[in-house]
Amino acid sequence: IPNSIKEEIIELFESFPNLNKIYEIYSKIGEGTFSSVYLGKERKVSRFNNNHDNKRNKTSSLVALKKIYVTSSPQRIFNELNLLYILRGNENVAPLLDVLRYEDQVIAVLPYYKHSDFRDFYRDLPLIGIKNYMFDLFQAIEFIHKHDVIHRDIKPTNFLYNPFTGKGVLVDFGLAEKYEPVINNACPCINGGFNDEEISKFEKLSVYPKNGYLKDDQRPGRRANRAGTRGFRAPEVLFKCNCQTPLIDIWSAGVMLLTLLSRRFPFFNSTDDIEAIMELINIYGTIEMKECANLHGLNLDCNIPKMKNKISFSAIIANSILMDCKEGDTFAEDSPAWEILSVIDKRGRIIDNKLGNEYNNAIDLLEKSMELYSNKRENAENLLKHEFFKEFRT
Ligand code: ADP
Ligand code: MG
């Protein structure tokens, strides 16, 4: 390990007087916005105070020590630890083993999960791997949603997957929250329906390439929880809906599935929410996006031409797989890749794929997860019953 990390570990031991007695630390395994994570092992202290037993105990297992930065508010730290505590007992959710505190410093202790960096496998994870990945992810989500917890930050770095064992574990409840339904001043999506007159009174959100803004509107801007990571935010989060439900996590899981199927990461790459809305317009078209904005009490004004209609996920995925094929590549049955993979319309555009049943099951699951209208999106429990997961049915 590099000297800078060694120094960091020494500093950590210095700032945490008792840590050294309880844990050994070997290396640093992660660094996020709100924490540093180290690989360590518990020292087993003998009941008989025998010095020999004080040495490394080979049977104790590896742990991840997550040092939460002191810049996080105490409420935030408490929230994360409390939710982790509530969410014990599912093999796809990392349980909290212990918490250490010294003055304002807090370390959460979790089991260590051996995993691969997403960037090292997303390009070549076979469909069976994608299936294992998504099944474990949806199992984790189903579990936390049963406990009324919204994760809010479902994305590859927070889902530790081991491609060799096919196991995945959800971590990082730093942005998670208890779901509490909004009753007063709720977003129109709660009722699902509204008429044209109501729509005309909605706040106007203008989406023009390069400068989206709220035009001619004297009302105070909308406020809503937007915590999460760009590119994984559900449309209702982008539209600042104040009735966000656990289904925002399903959308993010859908984006992960899209990433794996298209073998493009990051799939969405916007610098702000308006750009993120434009990226969605690119796929769903202006007609559906306006409708979605209406659902959340916004009037979407958009001057992007030629983007009225939706592009199918089937076409997106066939296209991206084709783009990765080299000339002369053959797919199943020795046919040229493009012939096997795509259905082309009169103008030579790919409109569908011939990827086969398994792929199409995956694409159907994708469409259900990335359902634009939050009131129509299915929950994890139902998605786990999807045809794509038939092998896992008990
Ligand atoms: P942050 O809130 O800073 O994003 P995370 O909990 O996501 O913190 O942890 C940051 C990184 O540390 C993760 O992306 C992962 O690479 C690594 N990590 C976290 N927990 C574990 C664990 N239990 N086992 C192995 N690696 C972990
Ligand atoms: Mg994280």
UniProtKB/TrEMBL annotation:
GO MF term set: ATP binding; protein serine/threonine kinase activity
Ranges of residues in domain Protein kinase: 23-389
Swiss-Prot/TrEMBL keywords: ATP-binding, Kinase, Nucleotide-binding, Serine/threonine-protein kinase, Transferase
EC number: 2.7.11.1
Species: Pichia kluyveri
Keyword Kinase tagged: yes
Enzyme class: transferase
GO terms under biological process: mitotic DNA damage checkpoint signaling
Stated name of the protein: non-specific serine/threonine protein kinase
GO cellular component terms attached to this protein's record: nucleus
Source organism, top-level taxon: Eukaryota
